[in-house]
Write a structure and sequence with these properties.
This protein is of the alpha/beta class and 319 residues long. It has a single domain (13-315), classed as Metal-dependent hydrolases (TIM Barrel), CATH 3.20.20. 35% of the residues lie in helices and 13% in strands. The chain has an 8-stranded parallel β-sheet with strand order 1-2-3-4-5-6-7-8. The two termini are 28 Å apart.
């Protein structure tokens, strides 16, 4: 009889030699019987959490406690912002502070059953990268974050390492998404991999960061919209605080959102905040309100699709 992998197995599989841990560290995060969140509620598809308890959750090499800005962003701090807005479920994104050590994210997911899904980071150089992905899936992980800096390659060849092929292959087999933190110059290489692995789910974060310079470049919008020809590619619509004029109510982003939703359809678009950075530079409500109240080109069902159903279908397939 096969048994579910233990948390210690997951630690071994995901640290990948990047962070040395002596023994099995104790954890301050304890499981709570919080029950299932109210439904329907909205879903935030992109949030980072971390703690300043670096004795139990060590930072990856190259990071120091002074770099934690804000100093903490725990699930309880998140709930204070999202629950008044009717957001009940969240997809957590592994924070770079922890490298490939996904323990804090996994512990938060276990602490609040039904409230979180997860997007992990794995060591692409490890021989067992596919096994890492499968083990993490058993703990509620549904996607894996990839970006040029992770593989230390320029955007034109960022998906060339062997581990990337293995990830895309396992993604297709196990319905696990590649969550891409990229700029538009990385799209041609992603397009190549989507043609090679058409059944692999792919999520492009933050509207492909179009407008991060302050200007919306139409050629970049067109390049992103062309990715809609790959039927398993989805887009996160958010991180508004970082795009265009970077000021609420973010009306300057409406033409960009209209084009992207028009190309991909609401069924492949999901709303995100990128908290805590959204609330550092603005408010949680302002991000939600842009989709909920100000996109007059979206029907009521379109808004519900983007604010809940797309993320629910992929990140919470069991309800």
């Amino acid at each position: 009889m096969s048994s579910r992998p233990s948390r210690r197995d997951i630690v071994k599989a995901t640290v990948g030699g990047m962070i040395g841990l002596s023994g099995c560290a104790a954890t301050r995060v304890e499981k709570q019987a919080t029950g299932r969140p109210d439904i329907p509620g909205w879903i935030d598809a992109h949030v980072h959490v971390w703690t300043d308890d670096v004795s139990h959750y060590p930072l990856a090499p190259g990071f120091t406690k002074s770099q934690l800005q804000p100093p903490t962003f725990t699930p309880e701090e998140l709930f204070a912002h999202c629950e008044p807005c009717g957001v009940r479920r969240i997809n957590l994104i592994q924070m770079s502070y922890y490298g490939c050590d996904n323990r804090y994210m996994l512990d938060v997911m276990e602490q609040y059953p039904g409230r979180f899904a997860g997007t992990a980071i794995v060591d692409l150089t490890a021989r067992d990268v596919g096994d890492q992905m499968r083990r993490l899936k058993s703990h509620g992980v549904r996607a894996f974050r990839i970006y040029p800096g992770l593989v230390k390659r320029p955007p034109a060849e960022w998906l060339r390492p062997d581990g990337c092929d293995e990830m895309f292959k396992v993604g297709a087999e196990s319905d696990l998404a590649m969550s891409c933190l990229i700029d538009p110059d990385a799209l041609p290489e992603l397009d190549r991999m989507c043609r090679r692995y058409p059944d692999t789910p792919v999520i492009i974060d933050h509207l492909c960061r179009i407008g991060i310079s302050g200007q919306i470049d139409q050629s970049q919008v067109d390049a992103l919209c062309r990715m809609s020809r790959h039927k398993r590619v989805m887009v996160k619509v958010g991180a508004f605080y970082a795009l265009g004029r970077k000021k609420p109510p973010y009306h300057d982003l409406l033409p960009l959102i209209r084009q992207v939703v028009g190309a991909f359809g609401p069924q492949r678009c999901m709303w995100e905040t990128d908290c805590p950075f959204q609330i550092v530079h603005g408010t949680y409500e302002a991000s939600l309100a842009l989709i909920r109240d100000r996109c007059d080109f979206l029907s009521r069902s379109d808004r519900e699709q983007i604010l809940r159903k797309t993320a629910e279908t992929f990140f919470f397939p069991n309800g």
